[in-house]
Design a protein that fits this description.
about 525 residues; ten-stranded mixed beta sheet
């Protein structure tokens, strides 16, 4: 048998087969579009959930660095800085000094007086948008909310008088007048408002805190470092390596990873769910496309047999089928990628509902929709993989078929269609006979439809399945709650309710109960009529 090695002939045959099966082509392209759409929307939605959660936590907890170390003594700070400068994993770092809390009755929020270089101010998301960071000893950069509380116009060169707490145990305070060299728009939703002073002022006026005082909860005068790695891989190992090299061996000391970048926390994104969804999409797309190619090959089996009879090899026939699959993919995948991105764009606000609820009071939730090229590349490759797997059975069929068997299969189907039975014909009976004629094919069709519905149902559950009432019943046991608990242990104050605050709350509760008793005892219009 002559082996034909003519690529142009194979391309011509592929084109002829595609022209013969125009209806098949349309259905196959739609199936590929749906598969690509599901992959793209799944990846866009998943990445958007991760990035939105990260952006919300960075904004709420005021920490965009990959890792940080806070409340360090002078000795620990020197060791850590040397280690960071020697590390090959660190891209850049920033340092700062916590001086104390701002003290003024006009402040209705937390105010912290600190020194920070540009990287540290960036980590706190408090870089001046107007002006610059302080350089001279009498300069200050601060939030517009602090200026508004003090009644000072946000303007470069204006003077502002600030009082801050040098030592909370000794009740030492310091008051100085500064010139404004920079400011930014304050955000009510964050943990506190920052006031940046110069390095010279901080070193001269900082409290000389000791290691023992830091361990007892006095953080005034403590140094801090914020660093960014070259990449986000193995943050825990890199941070642990730096901490050990700097001599921090006790738990709770040294560098700690920013929780916003930890994707494997208990309440973080579920990668197992993503993998299960990917497998569902692959299976659903496989069954649909598999059916299309199988039915198409069986319809054209006689033509494939004749081609084999004139010298076309099984590998060449298989290549013809696969070339049809690639051409259909080249049409369907780009359309599916575009539609999938649009679908993910529409779903993203609903998929980040948990972030919105967790930060609802402060309006800190952010919806970030990613258009990373890797998302589209992964979706396209998985769609191609699904098409490849779906065409395997059809390729094997045309590769192994012989001319005589192809003729017999084609004639057998025709003679089978001509069989008549002397029974009444009903639409229900015809449907059952068509299904039972090839029950395997019918089962695959039903499975493909069922799995597609399961995937759609999962997406609907993700988009609309978040019930705020259920969330509130679990996490909010009362109508009013007062504490200083946050979503991160790094920023949580377990002693936020002091005995003084508790006494004030008890007095308010007693007054509230008395008022309620008076209201209940007072006769109403309905009670008098009764």
């Amino acid at each position: 048998m002559v082996k034909v090695e003519n690529k142009e002939t194979l391309r011509l045959l592929t084109s002829r087969f595609m022209k013969m099966n125009r209806a098949r082509n349309v259905i196959a392209v739609i199936a590929i579009i749906l598969t690509s759409l599901l992959f793209t929307s799944l990846f866009v939605g998943s990445v958007s959930m991760i990035l939105s959660k990260r952006a919300t936590e960075i904004k709420q907890f005021m920490d965009s660095a990959h890792a940080s170390a806070q409340n360090l003594s002078e000795e620990d700070a020197k060791r850590l800085q040397q280690t960071i400068e020697q590390s090959e994993d660190v891209k850049r770092y920033g340092s700062g000094i916590f001086l104390g809390a701002g003290m003024d009755e006009r402040f209705g929020f937390s105010v912290e007086v600190r020194y920070a270089d540009e990287n540290t101010a960036e980590s706190f998301n408090c870089l001046p948008t107007t002006g610059r960071l302080p350089e001279k000893e009498n300069e200050v950069a601060l939030s517009s909310m602090v200026l508004e509380s003090l009644g000072v116009t946000p303007k470069i060169g204006e003077e502002v008088t600030l009082t801050w707490e040098v030592n909370p145990m000794l009740k030492q305070y310091k008051t100085d007048t500064f010139k404004i060299c920079g400011f930014w728009q304050g955000d009510k939703a964050v943990l506190g408002q920052m006031v940046w002073v110069s390095e010279a002022y901080a070193k001269e006026n900082r409290y000389p805190v000791t290691q023992e005082e830091l361990e007892n909860g006095i953080y005034n005068g403590g140094k801090e470092y914020f660093l960014w790695y070259k990449n986000l891989w193995n943050l825990e190992k890199k941070t642990e390596k730096i901490s050990k090299a700097a001599g921090f061996t006790r738990a709770g000391t040294g560098m700690e990873v920013n929780p916003a970048y930890n994707l494997f926390e208990e309440d973080s994104f579920s990668f197992s769910s993503l993998i299960i969804m990917i497998l569902f999409v692959i299976l659903a797309g496989y069954l649909i496309i598999y059916n299309i190619f199988n039915i198409s090959v069986k319809t054209d089996i006689r033509a494939y047999g004749l081609l084999k009879n004139v010298g076309t090899t099984g590998k060449q026939l298989k290549k013809i089928v696969r070339m049809q699959a690639w051409r259909l993919s080249a049409i369907g995948i780009p359309i599916g990628l575009l539609c999938g991105y649009l679908a993910g764009l529409c779903m993203a606000p609903s998929l980040t509902a948990d972030a919105e609820i967790s930060a609802q009071a402060g309006q800190t939730a952010q919806t970030v929709v990613s258009a990373n090229p890797l998302i589209f590349l992964a979706a396209a490759l998985l769609t191609l993989l699904t098409v490849y797997l779906s065409s395997l059975q059809a390729c094997k069929m045309v590769e192994r078929v012989s001319p005589v068997e192809a003729l017999r299969l084609a004639e057998g189907e025709q003679s089978h269609r001509k069989i008549k039975k002397n029974t009444s014909v009903t639409w229900w009976g015809m449907a059952v006979q068509n299904v039972l004629r090839n029950w395997k094919k019918g089962l695959i069709v039903m499975l493909s439809i069922a799995l597609s519905m399961v995937v759609v149902n999962c997406i609907v559950m993700l988009v609309q399945g978040y019930d705020f009432d259920s969330y509130r019943k679990v996490l909010l046991a009362s109508d009013f709650q007062l504490d200083q608990m946050t979503g991160s242990l790094l920023n949580t104050n377990f002693n936020g309710i002091t005995p003084e605050i508790k006494e004030i709350l008890d007095e308010c509760l007693i007054v509230l109960r008395q008022d309620m008793c008076i209201i209940l005892r007072k006769p109403t219009r309905w009670s008098r009529n009764f």
